[in-house]
Design goal:
By secondary structure, the protein is of the alpha+beta class. Helix content is about 20%, strand content about 30%. It has four helices and 14 strands. The protein has helices spanning about 1-30, 110-120, 125-130, 190; strands at about 45, 50-60, 70-80, 80-85, 90-95, 135, 150-155, 155, 210-215, 220-225, 230-235, 245, 250, 260-265. The strands form four sheets. Strands 1, 2, 3, 4, 8, 13 and 14 form a seven-stranded antiparallel β-sheet that branches. The protein has a three-stranded antiparallel β-sheet with strand order 9-10-11, with no helix packed on it. The chain has a two-stranded antiparallel sheet with strand order 5-12. It is globular. The N and C termini lie far apart (about 85 Å).
Length: about 270
């Protein structure tokens, strides 16, 4: 009797172990896995309002000149692991070129600053590796025909006239018109660095930001976008220091530990 009872108890024990094991497997399989962020291209509704996905990547001075904060970027386009990014806000201010002279994007001092001082200040070595080298096409001014100069290869650069009226990136298709899709606010740090900042009720906090395209019929001016989102073909004198800097770059998204999702913004 004792042997039979012992065998029955052992059988029940083994059965219980098997049931618990199955339960553990089932529970393990049913545990939800956090889904990877799937970034989307910009969308524009029937009223011309654009929505962009955003990410945080890198760190730069924004609220003040002593503490770096995560940089928020708008996703202008995404293709596989490549994301074309534009800073959500104007991050700094300064001249397109330090001297008043004929200059192109390839030779201007702002390009040097972006790919040296800014790059090394805002991004760690690992983050710099994740930023792609981009062949930047420098087209002539479409209104005046001013030469855009040689194409360049850059990590960080500025948008062109053609890019800021590209509807695929979420912008208004007309350059020389007011558009909320091109408006950009200055950070406190950019303002501290000299960026002109609107105080009007309609455009309060917005700044003017440089483009890389040349202006007028001479290369002593560079084009820009004003506080209302209006694009100026004439441009501003290259040595002007009140225009803001709104960087753009291409990021390799496969380095997912270097960036994080930052929600959406609308124009």
């Amino acid at each position: 009797m004792k042997r039979r009872k012992t065998k029955r108890l052992l059988a029940k024990f083994l059965a219980l172990v098997m049931v618990l094991s199955l339960c553990e497997v089932t529970l393990g399989q049913s545990t939800p896995v956090k889904a990877a962020v799937s970034l989307q291209n910009p969308t524009t509704d029937g009223n011309g309002v654009t929505t962009w996905d955003c990410i945080y990547f890198g760190n730069y001075y924004q609220s003040n000149s002593s503490t770096k904060e995560p940089i928020k970027w708008r996703v202008l386009s995404v293709n596989g692991n490549d994301a074309f990014l534009l800073a959500d806000r104007n991050l700094d201010a300064g001249s397109y070129n330090e001297k008043f002279t004929d200059v192109t994007w390839a030779t201007c001092t702002l390009r040097t600053w972006l790919n040296d001082t800014f790059l090394n200040t805002a991004f760690t070595p690992a983050e710099q590796t994740a930023i792609k080298n981009t062949t930047v096409v420098n087209k002539d001014n479409p209104y005046y025909g001013t030469e855009g100069g040689e194409n360049t290869i850059d990590k960080v650069y500025l948008l062109s006239i053609a890019e800021v009226c590209n509807t695929a990136y979420g912008f208004n298709g007309e350059f020389d018109t007011n558009s909320e899709t091109r408006e950009a606010k200055n950070t406190a740090y950019a303002k501290e660095c000299g960026a002109w900042t609107s105080t009007s009720t309609e455009y309060e906090g917005n700044g003017w930001w440089w483009l890389r395209s040349p202006g007028t019929d001479r290369s002593i001016n560079a084009s820009y976008v004003d506080d209302s989102g209006y694009g100026d073909y004439d441009g501003y004198s290259v040595d002007t220091v009140i225009d803001a800097v709104r960087p753009a770059l291409h990021l390799n998204l496969s380095s997912s530990n270097l960036w994080s999702y930052a929600g959406k913004v609308t124009s």
